[in-house]
Amino acid sequence: MGRIVLVLCLLSLAWTVSAAEPGSLTVVVKDARSKTVVGGALVYLDGAYKGTTADSSGVITLTGLKDGTHTVRVTKPDFREITKKIVYPNEMTVSVEIARGALVLLNEEGEKQGAINVVFYPSSTSYSCTDHAKISTPVYIENETRFREDVMKVIQSTYLDLDKITPSTKILPADYRDRFNFYYYYDPSAPADAFEGCAGTIPGKYWKEVTFVDVTVILYPKYHGTYSDAACMPTGCSQDYGPGRNLMKAPVNQLTLIQHETGHALYDLVDTYCGNTYYYQNDPHANVWSSRENCESDARSDGRDPAQCRQIQQAAATGSSVSCSQPYWRWDPMPDIMASGYRGKFGEAATQRINYVLSKVVTS
Amino acid sequence: MSLRILSSLLIIVLVCCSFCPYGAAADPVVPDFDKIVRIQLKYLDGAYSLESAEIQYGRAPNLALQSGELKGSILDTTGKERLSFSSREPWRAQGDILGDPEGRTLIGYTEGGDASDMSITVPWVQDMAAFTLTDSRDGALLVTADLTPAASLFCADYPGDPDCQARGASSQLAAMEPAPQATSLPIVFMVLFSLSVFLAAGLAIMTVRRRVAATGIPEGATAAIKAVKQTVLIVDDDPEMVEIIHQFLTDEGYATIHALSGKECLNILKKQLPDLILLDVLMQPMNGWETLEQIKKDPITKPIPVLMLTGKRLTSAEAKQYNICIDDYITKPFRHEEIFTAIDNILQRKQRFKDGLELAKKVGVDREKFCELAKLSRRITVNKKIIDILQAPAGTPAWGPDELTPENKEVIEQITITTRANEQRAEQLKTEINKVFRSKGVPEINW
User: Fold this and answer.
1) What's the predicted TM-score (pTM) here?
2) ipTM of the complex
């Protein structure tokens, strides 16, 4: 029996030794900023997962490489992933530096899969309607804590307190707060410009890095001056450049306007005030209709009073004449967030649509 | 069994397992293979065009949340829709200006631009072959993208990615030796089993690669592209002729739009860009050549291939003046097959250039160099056809030796000399480009 054990031992040793063939590549992963080694980084060779780097040395040795070009990919949670092309055997050791990402998750309990991903981005610009000029605003760029606090305030008022700005007659999903992932992206060297274009612009590296965002919110501290003429840049704006690039902007001191823009950007709600804006019947569960009949029909099927359907109009400042009229109809009573910039709630029709959008979210 | 033997066996197992990755404690780290397809589009004056389609690692946004009047679809290799989503028109910026808190609290601000970028991020779909964007209101096809070059290129860089292996685009991994990790005896069978599966997969991959090498397009991708109807603009002042061509083109799966004059053709092109124009030469008041000049003057319509159609013989003067503007020339009366073959050739050529350019861009081949080769290749094909027509026009009696006028002879000679020079330059460019393609494991150009 002792001989058998010895043979087995020798066999196992031989197996191990024969496996240590040439063709090995040493990958060392370091922190780009501190230059210290990074353990637990996931390393992939030519797309295949090979294992993690050792905690003590930041090293992993890959074996079985053929001569030629190979792609080494390194990932680690909270770090930006990096890809490096190497030519083997010219390079038998490769040093990869990974940097911490600028995306900060705000959910205490971690990311939820399938949730709505909302990312807040600081702007270094504001605007004066009086002077028709862009203003440089360094407050968020110099003070991350201030930006984070402002973001938390917006999250609370717009997303977590949604029950306070919707009618009690429309019940939101009990776990609606858990259907969001909130993040902010903080890179002082690459701020957004809230007043470059209607909804603002963000440097390209953000879009390259954050691929999964559903709504990106550019926040700026304050809009200066009061509305004087149509040449003023908008205070808030929403523009959808396609899935993954849905952008809105708003000043942090105007919470109702933030809720209004979120209504556009996330829930596809339509303005109910009368003016120079886009009107369409946002089926299903619309809050604006292209005919009285459609409005009344939806109201009936939703258990609302059809008599509340009314055309989108604006009375003149004096007298009973109408200064603005649109061939669209609304149902929600005033003060309606989709009609008012300073106060109000989402009405029952708008909340029906909000519930419809929230119902599409399946988290795990 | 004695305690000593049991202890020895235990030691062996421990020794083996210390070298064996499968036997080690469960690794809490989960590898991340999420991938996205990013399609960049350009919107200009009501028309969408493709800028690029790329695949990268990353997570996709929640497509179920999207709404709007546009519909995006990912089609598989059989043309079947595998994923769809809604999207809004990118130009529609919806702004609000805060007004008087006691009066008009919101003032509308619209920025309906005539130009905008659009960026579409969707998750990787196994067997994806094409992307289409349509207008949900009228079903109009706005833009299409062949996704196979992007997938091939990604898998050339990441052949070991599980999705690439499943897709059958693995190349370098097949050449790699199996990972020489120390292996415990119980998993030898697993390794053997894996090797046999690997071998079978390798054979399948080789078969696919052979086809890719032959055509540049993976099996099934053509079906998906064909599933997206190509639009042909028929321009002829004879309504009956338009109707005849319309009938047999729609029977073959093409979509058609019609214009009964050169002016109408130019008006249509302001609103819609077809994949190809079938242009009659003999029209009044603006003839086909004049219409062609206008089409090629406009940078937006310039890239659309034009197939000239006429009952009149091509003159040497016309050949000399317009050979660089046209993509083919067919003389009436023609057989249906002639038109199909010509259209197929032109559209396939267009697709090949597009795919090749995409790959060239990714592997670092100079865009100018690739475009020069594409232009030369097109000119060589067209010029050879023109020489044939001048020597013996299709559908008309062949020229007798004495009928070949000095002008025709001169033009044929000039075009022949140019074509030879073009062929030499094209060969040189092709060698340079293929050298880079080969080094990156990308199928070489074979046109």
Assistant:
1) 0.66
2) 0.90
